[in-house]
Design goal:
Structural class: mainly alpha
Order of helices and strands: HHHHHHHHHHH
Number of strands: 0
Oligomer: single chain
Shape: elongated
Strand content: under 5%
Length: 196
């Protein structure tokens, strides 16, 4: 928690972190960065929500723009994200952060920079893989998400005119899905070898 608080203090400042955490003293958040003190469980949840929202936005917005996003009125929210965090409306804030990040993605993509377009496509593929794994497993983790991404990349590389190869790739995807649903940790190299 100390690192999370320190991270936010560096970016949002002590008064804003204390305000979003609903502390009686605006310097309380500064003290949480020290090992001897820490926030209450409610305050910790608020700080974690702010940290998660920041991490969603940081890739596409400058620090000053992200800080402004937290404090400024959001017409969709009907208030500022900080006020929604104070009200413990964490899902609403995270959804708003994702929406703001998506808008920035579109702005970057519209500029036509091929590196940015590639990043946008990779980000979309990562989100799809994470959503897919979350849907088919009880405990989604980065390893399973990475496995799905690898199999999808393999399937994308197959010549679409090769019907047999497409069928094998589909079988491979279903095999991976079955193993993940069963809670197994499949060896992808073994799956790829059995596909050839």
């Amino acid at each position: 928690m100390q690192r999370t608080v320190g991270y936010l203090l560096d970016r949002l400042g002590t008064p804003l972190v204390s305000y979003l955490a609903v502390t009686p003293n605006k310097m309380d958040a500064w003290m949480w960065a020290e090992p001897s003190t820490g926030p209450t469980p409610e305050q910790e949840r608020r700080v974690r929500c702010a940290y998660q929202a920041w991490k969603i936005l940081e890739r596409w917005k400058r620090d000053d723009a992200t800080k402004a996003w937290f404090a400024d009125f959001d017409p969709v929210l009907g208030s500022s994200p900080v006020d929604r965090i104070r009200s413990d409306e964490f899902d609403v804030v995270i959804s708003a952060a994702k929406r703001a990040a998506d808008l920035e993605l579109v702005r970057y993509a519209e500029r036509g920079d091929p590196v940015v377009i590639y990043d946008v496509m990779r980000e979309a593929a990562n989100r799809c893989a994470a959503a897919y794994v979350a849907r088919i497993t009880r405990d989604p983790d980065e390893h399973a998400i990475d496995q799905v991404r690898r199999v999808w990349s393999y399937a994308e590389g197959i010549d679409p005119r090769d019907a047999l190869a497409q069928l094998r790739a589909t079988d491979l995807l279903y095999d991976l899905r079955g193993r993940l649903v069963a809670g197994e940790d499949p060896d992808l190299d073994e799956l790829f070898e059995s596909d050839t």
